[in-house]
Design brief:
Layout (H helix, E strand, L loop, with lengths): L2 H14 L2 H5 L2 E8 L7 E2 L1 H14 L3 E11 L2 E10 L3 E12 L2 E12 L1
Parallel strand pairs: 1-6
Antiparallel strand pairs: 1-2, 3-4, 4-5, 5-6
Length: 113
């Protein structure tokens, strides 16, 4: 698998706030963690519900891939996110895969000046 391409397509789905397309990147029994869900969400439907609420409550966000590094079972990826009217973030994802589906996604973010 071309992880740079996978990462770019996945981040594009985040930018587009396309919940249906985005959850198709995730396995049925996935685990997702970000700063708002530090204890984690389990399963595609829990992720779908979370993303639906998140996207409705946030302004436009444009994700730009920066770098990806292959690791055993997946990859790590760094990105930048410009939030309409609210600045910019630098983020990092730990992604474990089963085939081409995400089974674990941990997200770390840092606000930029």
């Amino acid at each position: 698998m071309d992880i740079a391409d996978f990462n770019a397509r996945w981040l594009k789905a985040w930018t587009d706030k396309d919940v249906d397309r985005l959850v198709r990147f995730y396995a049925e029994g996935c685990v997702y963690k970000d700063p708002q869900t530090a204890a984690g969400l389990e399963g595609r439907e829990a992720l779908r519900a979370y993303l639906t609420g998140l996207f409705a409550a946030t302004p436009a966000m444009t994700y730009t891939p920066d770098e990806v590094w292959p690791i055993p079972g997946g990859f790590c990826g760094r990105w930048y996110c410009r939030i309409e009217g609210a600045g910019q973030l630098r983020g990092f994802d730990l992604v474990l895969l089963d085939g081409e589906e995400i089974v674990l996604n941990e997200v770390y973010v840092h606000p930029l000046p």
